[in-house]
Write a structure and sequence with these properties.
By secondary structure, this protein is α+β, with helices and mostly antiparallel strands. The protein has one domain. It contains three helices and five strands, in the order ββαββαβα. The radius of gyration is 15 Å and the shape is globular.
């Protein structure tokens, strides 16, 4: 159990990384083991990009071709091998309950969450693209 009382995953599972989408009732993720850390950041990140995996995720979520890429919550999980902790990056609309489910989806033992402007929804997303 973590300090804040949140149960942790089994210690024999290795934390995983990659992209995720969440429509509020279903999580679509492509977790895999981390590779080598990035020399600049020290974090293990995926070579995948949301726009590459989006068609697969959209199909699994039952989205139509007319539904916008930005209409579903999304984010990514990175691993810090030096700190032995994972980071769940997400937008402004991801709830603490869904973050808990994301931690389970990626077999995370010790993690923290961070908002990232790439994953903002609604007005916060619109503000990023105003001139």
């Amino acid at each position: 159990m973590r300090e804040d009382g949140v149960p942790t995953m089994s210690l024999n599972k290795q934390p995983q990384i990659d992209m995720w989408w969440d429509n509020g009732s279903r999580i679509v993720a492509f977790p895999h083991r981390p590779g080598e850390p990035d020399r600049a950041t020290g974090l293990c990140d995926s070579d995948d990009a949301h726009n590459d995996l989006c068609p697969d995720a959209a199909m699994q979520l039952g989205l139509t071709d007319f539904e916008e890429y930005f209409s579903v919550l999304r984010g990514c999980v990175l691993w810090s091998p030096t700190k032995k902790t994972s980071i769940i990056y997400h937008g402004n609309a991801t709830t603490p309950q869904r973050l808990q489910k994301m931690g389970a989806e990626f077999s995370l033992n010790d993690w923290k969450s961070r908002t990232d402007t790439h994953y903002m929804m609604g007005d916060a997303n619109d503000d990023l693209f105003e001139d």
